[in-house]
Amino acid sequence: MKETTNGTRTGRFSKSPSADPYPLVLDIGDFKGDFSFDALFGNLVNDLLPSYVEEETDTSEGNGATDAVPNGHLNAAKATQALSSPFFPEVDSLLSLFKNSCMQLVDLRKQIDQKLYNDKSEVSAQDSKHRKTLSELEKGVDGLFDSFARLDSRISSVGQTAAKIGDHLQSADAQRETASQSIDLIKYLMEFNSSPGDLMELSTLFSDDSRVAEAASIAQKLRSFAEEDIGRQGIDSSVTGNATASRGLEVAVANLQEYCNELENRLLARFDAASQKRELSTMAECAKILSQFNRGNSAMQHYVGLRPMFDLEVMNEDAKLVLGDPGSQPSPSNVARGLSSLYKEITDTVRKEAATITAVFPSPNDVMLILVQRVLEDRIPKLLEKLLLKPSLLNPPRMEDGGLILYLRLLAVAYEKTQDLARDLRGVGCGDLDIEGLTESLFLPHKDIYIEYEQSSLRQMYKSKMEELRAESQQSLESSGTIGRSKGASISSSQQQISVTVVTEFVRWNEEAVSRCTLFSSQPAALAANVRAVFTCLLDQVSLYITEGLERSRDSLTEAAALRERFVIGTSMSRRVAAAAASAAEAAAAAGESSFRSFMVAVQRCGSSVAIVQQYFANTISRLLLPVDGAHAASCEEMATAMSSAEGAAYKGLQQCIETVIAEVERLLSAEQKATDYRSPDDGIAPDHRPTNACTRVVAYLSRVLESAFTALEGLNKQAFLTELGNRLHKGLLNHWLKFTFNPSGGLRLKRDITEYGEFVRSFNAPTVDEKFELLGIMANVFIVAPESLSTLFEGTPSIRKDAQRFIQLRDDYKSAKLAARLASLWPSSS
Prior knowledge:
Protein name: Exocyst complex component 5
Number of strands: 4
Shape: flat
Structural class: mainly alpha
Order of helices and strands: EEEEHHHHHHHHHHHHHHHHHHHHHHHHHH
Number of helices: 26
Strand content: under 5%
Organism: Salvia divinorum (Maria pastora)
Keywords: Coiled coil, Exocytosis, Transport
C-alpha cells in the first residue's frame, strides 16, 4: 500500500507494463501491518469505474432540478434512453478482475502455507537443540551445587575449629588475666596483712588520687575475700575442734576496714567540696566510687542529710508560716494557705534536688526514696506536732478559744493538704517508697479516735448554741422591762420559738462532719459506721431542740388555761366584780389565742425542720450507708425513734390547742348567747333571720384563730386535727343549745346559726363533721313544725331520733301541747 498526498491509504499492489488486460499483481506485503479490505477493494475497482462514479455524482447533484416535472413524473425521453442502454456495462470487466484476484490470493495462500511449514520445521529443530543444551546445563549446575555444598561444609568445619581455637585463646587470655590480677591481689593482700594499723607501706595505687576508683574496687575485693576466708576457717575449726587453727588474715581484714573507712571519708569530703561548688561531674565520679561501699548508702544518706531543707531553722520557719504569730489562734483558712505555700515550696525543692540526683548518682531512685522519706518522717511530722495539738475530751477548750471544732478543721486541712503533697512528690519521683502508707501513718494517732472528737464537738456546739439562744432571750426579756405574767408568758414563748435557721445550722455542722468522715474513712464499712454516729448526733440535737421548743409552746398553752380557770365568772358576785372578772377573762382569752398561734408556728417550724433533716438524709447520708448491709435501714429506724418524742409533744400540744379553742367558744357562747335569741316575743314583728350575735362572734373567733392552723398543718395531721376540733365543736354546741327553750321563730334563728356553723366547718374538709352539722340542721326543724307534724319529721333519719327527742323537750309548748304523751305513742321503743 502507498500513502497518497492527502493522507489516505492506497492499495499496495502494482500493474504489469505488458498489455495484459488484468495487470493486477498481489503481494504478500500488501497484507502486512494495518490491512484494510475496503481500501484493497477500492483500489481494485477504481480504475474500472471512474465514469460510473462521475455519472453517479452528477446524477445526485442534478436530481430534482431537471428530472422532476410539476406533476411529479420523469422525462419520457430520458426514460426511453435508459431502457435502451445496459444498466452496469463494467460488470464483465469486474468479474474477470475478481477471478484473477481470487487465483492470485490462492497462490499467495499456498506460498504462506509453505513458508509456515518451513518455519515450523526450523523451530522444531531449534527447540530440540535448545532442550539438549538445557539438559547439559542442568547437569553442570547440579555438579556445581554439589561442589558448593562440599565447600560450605568445609568452611563450616573450618569456622567451628576457628571458633574453638578462639574460645580456647580467649579462655587462656582470661585465665592469664585472672592469674595476673590474682597475683596483684595476693601482693596487695600481703601488703595489708603485713602489720596491724600500718598503711604507710602500701603500694602507690592506694594513695594515688587519680586511681581512687581502681583502689576502691581492689580494696573491696580483698576485703570480701579476706572476710570469706576467715569465715570459712571458723567453720572448719568448729567442725574439727582445732582451737589452734590459723587466723592469718585478721590483720588484713582490720587494715582493709581501716583503709576503706579512710577512703570513704576522703571521697565524702571530696563529694562535699564538689557539692558546694556545684561540680556535678566530680560529684558523679565520687558517687560512682562510693556506690562500691555498702551500695552507696553512706553517700546517699550523707547527701540527703546535708540538704538545707532539713535544717532546724528552716523547720522552725515552717511553723511560723503555717501557724502565724506565736500565741495567736490559727484559723483553718490561714492554715490552708500556709500549708499550700509550704508544700509547694517543698515540692519545688525536691524537684530541683531530683535533677541534681539524676545527674550525680548511679541509682537516683534510691536517693529519691531516701529524700522523700526524710521529708515525710522528719520535716512534716515536726510541723504537724505543732499544728495538731490533740485537746482533752474531759476538759475541752472553750468555744471562745475555738473549741473542738477548731482541732477537727485543722486536722482535715492538714490531712487533705498532706495528701496533695504526697501525690505531688509521687509525681516528682520517690522510687519504691509506699508514700501513701507513710502519709497515712502520720495521722493514725488522730484518726484512731477521730469519731469521738467529732461527736463531742457536735455536742459542744449544740450546747453553746442553746446557751447563746437563752442569753438572747433573757436579754430581750430584760430590755422589755417589767410586764404582767400573762403578757410575759406570751413574750417568753415568742422569744424562744423554734427556728428553722437554727436547725439548718445543725444540718450544716453535720454536713461538715460527714465531709470529714468521707475524707478520713477509705473503707465503706468504716465510713458507714462513722456517718451513722455523726448523723445520730444530728437526730438527737434536732429531736431535743424541737421537742423543747414544742414543750415551751405547750407551757404557754398551760399558762393560758390556768388563767382561764382563775377568772371564771361565778353566779353569785356583784356587778363590779363580774365586770373585773370579765375583763380578766378577755385577757386570758387573748393569752390563749396568742399561745395557740405560737404553738401552731412551732408545729409548722417543727415540720419544716423534720423535712430538712429528711431531705439531708436522702441527699447525703443514704448514699454513704447503702453500700453496707443493714446500715440504711438501721439509720431510718433511728430517725423515726428520734422524732417520736417530738411527735408526742406535738400531739399533746394540739390537744391543748383544741381545748383552748373549745374553752373560748364556750366562753363566748356563755357571754353572748341570750335567752331571747331563741325565744323572741310574738309581737307581730318580722322574725330576725340573721345569725345570733354569739354565733357571729364564735365564727369570727374560729376564722381568726384557725387561720394559723390551716397554714401550719398539712396532710393527715391537718385532717385529724380539724376532724377532732369539728367533733368537739359539734358536741359543745349541742350541749350549749340544750340549755335554752325555743319557740318557732327561735327555731328559725337556731337553724340560721347551724347553717352558719356548718358553712364554716365545711372548710375543714371533714365529711363526718359535715354530716353531723347537717343532722343538726334537720333536728332544728323540731322547733319549727307543728306538733302534729313531728311524727313524719324523722322518717328518713331514724338514727337521730334520740337526740331529736331531747330537742323536742326544749320546745316552749312541750308541756302545753302534751308532746310527751304524743311522743310516747309515736315512738314507744324510745320512751
